[in-house]
């Protein structure tokens, strides 16, 4: 069981670097384009205020969590179908929703694939 936590945590770190971060950046850019209050208009520079920085930070955090849940959910489901129920640990609070998706999807995938001894 201890090795499972280490393997799952390594999978999360790898997927975060390879898939979650690029997807989060893409979702963030798309959200900025759709939100005229957070992007410059007509080439004019908006004043960079603490409020604008806070809004960008909040928006990026939301997009990171969305990307994390999507990627980790898919990865957990595939691991579950292969017979590997995963349990891991996340250091940062914004990674916990993705961790929960990874764990839940891996157990659901194991159950759907009919692997014995999971539930």
Per DSSP, what share of the residues sits in E-state strands of 2 or more residues? under 5%
**Count of separate DSSP helical elements:** 3
Which spans have pLDDT < 50 for at least 5 consecutive residues?
none
Q: What Rg is obtained from the alpha carbons, in whole angstroms?
A: 18 Å
DSSP E strands, number: 0
Largest sheet: none
Give the averaged pLDDT, no decimals.
84
Structural class: mainly alpha
Shape: elongated
Give the fraction of residues assigned to helices: 55-70%
Identify the notable features of this structure and list them briefly.
single chain, elongated, 119 residues, mainly alpha, 3 helices
Describe the structure.
The chain is mostly helical and 119 residues long. It is 70% helix and 0% strand. Helix 1 packs across helix 2 and helix 2 packs parallel to helix 3.
Describe the secondary-structure layout.
Elements: H1 2-34, H2 50-81, H3 96-113
Summary, kept brief:
70% of the residues lie in helices and 0% in strands. By secondary structure, it is mostly helical.
